[in-house]
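ok so I'm stuck.
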Amino acid sequence: MIGGTGFVGRALIARLARTNIAVRIITRNRERHRNLLVFPQVQLIEVTPHGPAALSKYFLGSDVVINLSGILNEQGPDNFQAVHAILAQNVAEACVKSGVPRLLHMCALGATPEAPSAYLRSKAEGEHIVHSVKGVETTSFRPSVIFGPHDNFFNRFAQLLRISPGFFPLACPTAKFAPVYIEDVVEAMIRTIDDKTTIGRRYEFCGPQVYTLKELVEYTASVVGLRRVIIPLDDRLSLLQGRIMERLPGRPFSTDNYLSTKVDSITNNNALPKFDITPRSIKSILPSYLGSQRKSARLSTFRLTANRD
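replied:
not stuck anymore, here's the structure
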C-alpha cells in the first residue's frame, strides 16, 4: 500500500484487519507511523526514493498494490505532478517489474485533463497513466469528498468554525459535493480485488445527497453546537481568500483549491450500488463523531467554570 498512512489508508487497514490479509505499507518515515503496527498483519517499510526499482523490491510476492497517494496542496518537492502522475507511473511500472498482477488506484471525482485546477489535472494524468501501463490489471476510484472519523473535511471546518468570531466568511459557497462515507468506499475497493469484471474500470463514488458547501458548513456548525453566521463570498472574494490563506501555516485554502471547486464533486454514475452497498448519509454518521466533540467542549467549559483542570 502506497499512501497507506493517510485517512483512507488507515480505514482500509482497519477493514483488512478483520481478514487474514497481510499488508505492507510503504512510507518515507516509519517511526512517525509506528502506531499502525498495532495491527498484527501490518508491516511498515521505509523507502526513499519511490522509483520503480526501489518499489519493485518490496512489491515482490504481493497479490495487489493499492496506491492512495494524494495531496491537496503542493509543498516543496511534493508537487501535484510528482505525487499524482510520476509516482503513479512508478507504482504501475514497479507492479509489472515485480510481477504484481493487480493495482488499485485512487483518483478523484471531476479529474479530467481539461479541469481548471492543477490538482484535478494531475489526478487525471495519473489515472490515465496507470490504465495505460501494460502487464498489470488496474481498477481506479473517483470519490467525492470522503467523510468519517478523523476526516480532513468536516473536522477542518469544525476547527475553523470554533475559532471564528461569530461569523464565518465562506469561499465558493455554491460549490456542490456529495459526501461519501469512508467505510462505504473501502468496502467497495476491497470487493474489486478478486472481481475480474472490475479490471480496467473507473468507478465513481458519492453519497446519497448533494449539498452546496454552504449547506455542509451550516450543518457542521449545528452538529458541533455553534451559532455562526455564514457569509457567502462572491467569486472575486473567494479567489482573494485563497491567495491569502495559502500563505498561512498548513494552507487551509489555496487558489488551486478555489479552482477545484469550479467542478462540482457530484456524479450521476454512483458505483456503490453496483457493489451492493447502500451509501450512508452524513446525517446518519456525522453526529457520531462531530457530536462527541460538542460534548467534550461542554465538559471543558464546565470544568473551567468549576475551577477544575
